Amino acid sequence: MNANLPKRWQPSVEQEMQKSGVTLAEPEQAISGRVTPLSRLRHQPDSLRQRTLLPTDVAGHAMKPEITGSSSASTEPDGTEEKSTAGGGDIVVTRYTARDVSMMAPSISGDMTGGEVLDLFSANPSLPIFAVIDPDGTLLGVIERDRLLFQFSQPLWYDVYNRRPIAPLINQRPLAVDMSTTIDRIKAMIAFDYPEAIGTGFVITENGQYAAIGTMMLLLERTIEQANLHATELEAARRHAASANKAKSQFLATMSHELRTPLNAIIGFSDLLLIDAAADRKPDRLGEYLTDIRSSGQHLLALINDILDYSKLEADRMEILMEPIALSRLLQASSRIAAGQAANSGIDIEILSVPEVMISGDERRLRQVMINLLSNAIKFSPNGSKVEITAALDLANQLTIRVVDHGIGIAPEDLERIFMPFVQVANTLNRTTAGTGLGLSLSRLLVERHGGSLVIESAPGQGTCAVVTLPASCLLTSA
């Protein structure tokens, strides 16, 4: 550009470099392109200016981009989910991380020439920086597009460094974050420690190795998406809290009736016995009174046990004792316990088909599940009908147990709602059956603790089928 000027008027290379603010590399460094790693700088940068977040809980291997001129592509956001449990349900809070703002980009080495890097920038117009790495994949710094173009626009720079290593232009103090870093943390670092990253972007690492770059445009897009998701999640949480509050209010109303009825019976019959004892006479109906007191006490104990068991399962504090169980013995014992309730309504319990197998599980808890399902089937079956139990193994050796009744059935919109704690399909004030509304919730949790599932198949007026599925891992040998 200065070829036509007299030689005495042409500035030296050193003068031009001083004006442009660029320091010449040492001869051997310029030839070899060696750059000191960030961790081995003679003068360590301030801790607030040089902060590389280490991986915390990221699975997978570091990506190894190749040095090519192919265009970059951004990944779809995945985000991480934080769950908080309240009222028997999970509230999901999405947190986008650096993984969701990562843009795949080729890396370069410190011995590449300025012309080669300029060509890479021309082939990748959307990339504001290139990461400079050593042969081991360790991040050495970044080359910024704007700085490179500015230096190439200076007198003599293009002629001098077009074919020399790019090492003198490496920014050895870039913002570098791990894939697991949340975008909220990245924004805070940019605001307080790395304001220059607004224009240059930042580097993303994984397991200590270079993985991708991030830009402010992607960061802003994901911030808006995360804000919209949070608004949706907050609304879902509000509805969930309102539903849980309504269910618990209904539970308290139900429990006040369920607790008062047996307590009144216990107190009333006890008072009658005390009156007769004070009059020094033997009650004519002593056996009947004692039977009613005992049954009322058992009813109270069952209610309290349900509440305590559900609380333990919710807190993941219930111990499941796995032991060999004969399936036929489990189902027969459960039907015998429920036979008394069935007899009061003239209902027969029939075990139609059961394979002779041994399963692994907590016998007391699985029996509790079967009794709950039989009790529900009996409560909602017409007098004189039947409740049927069948069991079978499928081709995957999963065990399926079915409890079928021919009662009033359940509406489709209520099939999942009945598994919510404290929820009863019938209105609290006009229902005809007793219970806390915890039986199905408790049964599903107990089955899930065994690795299985519990679903209800039903339709109004067509009866109900409760299906318990246990995985093949629960199956032992034939009985």
How would you describe this structure to a colleague?
By secondary structure, this protein is α+β, with helices and mostly antiparallel strands. The protein has three domains: 12-214, CBS-domain (Roll); 239-314, Signal transduction histidine kinase, dimerisation/phosphotransfer (DHp) domain (Helix Hairpins), CATH 1.10.287; 323-478, 2-Layer Sandwich (Heat Shock Protein 90), CATH 3.30.565. The chain has twelve helices and 16 strands. It has helices spanning 13-20, 27-32, 114-123, 145-152, 157-161, 183-192, 197-200, 216-278, 286-314, 327-344, 363-379, 439-449, and strands at 80-86, 89-95, 102-103, 129-133, 139-144, 176-178, 202-206, 209-214, 323-326, 348-353, 357-361, 386-393, 399-405, 453-458, 464-470, 475-478. A five-stranded mixed beta sheet has the order 10-12-13-15-14. A hairpin with a 5-residue loop joins β14 (453-458) and β15 (464-470).
Give structural attributes.
single chain, 479 residues, alpha+beta, CBS-domain, Heat Shock Protein 90, four-stranded mixed sheet, 16 strands, 39% helix
User: What is the top-level CATH class of the largest domain?
Assistant: Alpha Beta
Count the helices. How many? 12
Gyration radius (Cα, Å) is: 37 Å
**Order of strands side by side in the largest beta sheet?**
10-12-13-15-14
The ordered string of helix (H) and strand (E) elements is: HHEEEHEEHHEHHEEHHEHEEHEEHEEE
